[in-house]
Design goal:
alpha/beta; six-stranded parallel sheet; 6 strands; 51% helix
């Protein structure tokens, strides 16, 4: 999955480019000016959906995309997942219950990984996994086996890296 940012026409064009390069899908970040209300959110994702055949993963970081909108997005044939980055565990669980059978709900953020697993995440997207993939795979496998003692051991072992990220921000990961 490649990240695509922009307004509707720009995102559709970039998604077609990503598809032509062989990607399985796109993680979509609409321009803030594009997603002012529910209708504009649905219009944006519909436009990109019509432009490509690969999977789409909307990005949710606030309440602009509510449960009604998520249901409408799940009706689009190639919206296959949601990257949930609001970090509200009650919202996360409500999303899993409402559309988790139709979309893969991906928890975003290292700090909440164990909670996402317990609440029904279909996956995890976090910056540190780019640098320590084996540990994150092991943590995922432990969660799938309901071995939460091991999940917490691994999660705790990552605290020094998480502290660096808190101190230096996302720029640390980008560098």
């Amino acid at each position: 999955y490649a990240g695509v940012y922009g307004d509707g026409p720009t995102s559709a064009r970039r998604a077609r480019q990503v598809e032509a390069c062989g990607a399985d899908g796109v993680l979509l970040f609409p321009d803030d000016e594009v997603v002012t209300d529910a209708a504009s959110v649905v219009a944006y994702y519909s436009r990109v959906s019509e432009a490509v055949d690969i999977g789409l993963m909307p990005f949710r970081a606030d309440d602009t995309v509510d449960l009604d909108v998520l249901g409408r997005l799940a009706d689009l044939g190639n919206v296959v997942a949601l990257k949930e980055e609001k970090e509200d565990m009650d919202d996360f669980r409500q999303i899993v219950l409402a559309v988790g059978e139709r979309l893969n709900i991906i928890g975003a953020g290292d700090a909440f990984a164990p909670a996402y697993f317990v609440l029904g995440a279909a996956g995890l997207a976090c910056g540190l996994s780019n640098f320590l993939p084996r540990l994150y795979v092991e943590m995922w496998e432990a969660a799938q086996a309901w071995d939460y003692r091991r999940v917490m051991e691994i999660h705790t072992s990552l605290e020094a890296f998480a502290a660096l990220r808190r101190e230096h921000g996302t720029a640390m990961l980008k560098a």
